[in-house]
Design a protein that fits this description.
This protein is an alpha+beta fold. It is built from eight helices and four strands; from the N terminus they run E-E-H-E-E-H-H-H-H-H-H-H. A four-stranded antiparallel beta sheet has the order 2-1-3-4. The protein starts with a strand and ends with a helix.
Length: 227
């Protein structure tokens, strides 16, 4: 199967979503749910020449309901049998290999942090997914009580990498902002005006304060309502 109603499909998940979208579109055109709806299916049989055909298929109400009910969530009582945490042990063969592994993982987490910041602006990652001091303490407490010390040290390493990335962002009042002002001073040949520098620091402080209050609100809400 190549496409449903002209929309390309590359996997079973794409096929299901295309059929569900066609069902929703057909339902929206009628005040009541249609007894059946039709979809245009483009497919390519595995025969000589691999020709492409298009057929229009009508789905009954029972078939439409089966499409709508497709889910990827297993029954709650059996979820522990379906999904388990994937744990891949990381073990170095010696000090040099441990240093290489540490550099590689640090680079990986730095890139993930930058990617998360970019997706915040793209709105593909919600602000509610961030963690502040309260969220960090909560997650760290869980690790201390439920895992062993290597996981706790690994967690501290991730926090440190995140702090390094945030600290070197070009935001006034951070080290990254200071480096930005030094670069401007180098380019223009004179220091930035003290008034401009003070105003920029106030703006940076206000921005950090807003972020702090926002993540603290979501941390408290998560603790209150999830517990």
């Amino acid at each position: 199967i190549l496409a449903i109603n002209g929309k390309p499909v590359a996997s079973f998940a794409d096929l299901v979503m295309a059929l569900q979208a066609a069902r929703e579109a057909a339902t929206a055109k009628s005040a009541t749910q249609p007894a059946e709806y039709a979809v245009s299916v483009q497919y390519q049989p595995n025969i000589a020449g691999q020709p492409t055909y298009t057929r229009r298929l009508a789905l009954s109400a029972q078939q439409a309901k089966a499409v709508a009910d497709v889910s990827w969530t297993p029954p709650q009582a059996l979820s522990f049998l379906w999904y388990k945490p994937l744990r891949i042990p990381l073990k170095a063969t010696g000090p040099l290999d441990a240093a290489r592994l540490g550099v590689a993982k640090t680079n990986e987490f730095m890139l993930q942090t930058y990617l998360t910041l970019a997706r915040l602006f793209q709105r593909s990652v919600p602000v509610s997914g961030l963690r502040g001091p309260i969220g960090i303490v909560s997650a760290g407490s869980t690790l201390v009580t439920e895992t062993s010390w290597p996981y706790v040290l690994f967690f501290f390493g991730i926090i440190s990498v995140n702090l390094v990335v945030v600290n070197f962002l070009p935001i006034p009042i951070t080290d990254g902002g200071l480096m930005l002002f030094l670069l401007i001073e180098k380019l223009k040949g004179s220091p930035v005006s003290p008034k401009i520098l003070a105003a920029a620091n106030y703006v940076g402080l206000a921005l950090i304060g807003v972020v702090f209050l926002t993540v603290t609100y979501f941390d408290l809400a998560r603790l209150i309502f999830h517990n």
